[in-house]
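Thread: Modeling a multi-component assembly for a lab meeting

Hi all, long-time lurker, first post. My supervisor asked me to bring a structural picture of a complex we are working on to next week's group meeting, and I have zero experience with this. I have the sequence lines for every component (228 residues in total). Could someone generate the structure of the whole assembly? Inputs are pasted exactly as I received them:
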Amino acid sequence: AQKVTQAQTEISVVEKEDVTLDCVYETRDTTYYLFWYKQPPSGELVFLIRRNSFDEQNEISGRYSWNFQKSTSSFNFTITASQVVDSAVYFCALSYYGGSQGNLIFGKGTKLSVKP
Amino acid sequence: SQTIHQWPATLVQPVGSPLSLECTVEGTSNPNLYWYRQAAGRGLQLLFYSVGIGQISSEVPQNLSASRPQDRQFILSSKKLLLSDSGFYLCAWSLAGETEAFFGQGTRLTVV
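Re: Modeling a multi-component assembly
Sure thing. I ran the full set together rather than chain by chain. Output:
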C-alpha cells in the first residue's frame, strides 16, 4: 500500500534559520512521483516540485532544496534562511498508477511557523 | 495560462441539506479533474476523479457524489449533508498523462 509519512506535525523557527521538513514514503511501484506542496493560510495548495523515481539528483530552487534518497524512501525539503512568508503547511505527496495518473497520496502535513 | 475556479469560498449548511460545489478550469482541454477533502488535523484525501465527461471514479465510499457535465466543469454534490462532511474541499486538475495536480482555492464547508 502507498503511504506518505510526515513525522513533524509542527516546526517553529526564527527567521533566517535553515529548516528541513521530513518526508518518508512507502510504495510497491517501481515508477512513481513525489511532490511537495505549500498551503499558505489562504488555503490554496501551491505546487512546489515534482520528482520521478528514476531521478535521484538533488534539486535547488532559490532558498528551497530537495533531497531524494530511494535507499531510505525519503524526500526531504530544506528551506535555507527561512522567512516569515515561508510560514505555511507543507505537504509531501506520492502519485500512483492504480487509477488515473495524478491521484495523489498526501502526508498529513507539517506546519511551519517562521517568527521574525 | 490555465486557471481553476472554485466556489463558494465558504459555506455553512445545516445537517440534512443538499450541497453543490462547483469547479471550472480554463485554458486547457480534457483535463483530469479531482475533488479532495481536507478534514481538520488530517491530510488531504482524494474523493473523486474524472478523466472525461461523464466519467467519475470514487476513491472513498461516502455521502457525496460528483459529476462532470462538461469538459472543464466538475461538481461535488450531496443530497443530505452529515456533520462529518465538514471540511475543506479542494478541486484540482492535471493534464492527461501528467502527474502534478494544480489546486483551486478551496471551499470551507461547515455543517451545523
